[in-house]
Design brief:
Length: 121
C-alpha cells in the first residue's frame, strides 16, 4: 500500500493538522490506519499518537502529551529518514525537541507541532 497524502483521508488529516485541529486529524487518519497493512499501519499509528499528544497538550495534560510523543518517537524512529514520501528524520527531530521542552521547568505554555512534511526529491 502506498500512502498518498494528496487525496482522501490522508490529505484531509494533513490539512487539519496544519490548521491545529489535532483531534480531528486523529479521526481522519484513523480511517486510513484501520485498513493499512504493515509497515504503513505502525507508521500511521505513530503519526496519530503525535496528533493525540498535541490534543493532550492543549488540554494541559503534559504527562499524557509526553507519554504519547515518546511512544510515537519509538515507532517512527524505526523507519527510514524518508517513508511514505514524508520527512521522518525531520519529524523525529521535532518530536525530540518537543519532549525536551515538555521536560523543562516550568513546562511550556506553547508547543510547536512537529513538522509533518513531504520530502523534497
Amino acid at each position: 500500500m502506498t500512502l498518498d497524502w494528496t487525496q482522501g483521508a490522508l490529505q484531509e488529516g494533513l490539512r487539519l493538522y496544519r490548521s491545529g485541529r489535532f483531534f480531528a486529524t486523529h479521526e481522519a487518519w484513523e480511517s486510513a490506519w484501520l485498513t493499512a497493512p504493515p509497515p504503513e499501519k505502525l507508521f500511521l499509528q505513530g503519526l496519530i499518537q503525535v496528533t493525540v499528544a498535541l490534543h493532550h497538550f492543549h488540554r494541559h495534560n503534559h504527562l499524557g502529551a509526553t507519554r504519547l510523543l515518546t511512544a510515537a518517537l519509538r515507532k517512527l524512529s524505526t523507519y527510514a529518514p524518508t517513508f511514505a514520501t514524508l520527512d521522518v528524520a525531520l519529524l523525529c527531530d521535532d518530536i525530540r525537541a518537543s519532549l525536551k521542552r515538555l521536560a523543562a521547568d516550568p513546562p511550556p505554555t506553547h508547543l510547536a507541532p512537529p513538522r509533518i512534511q513531504m520530502q523534497c526529491l
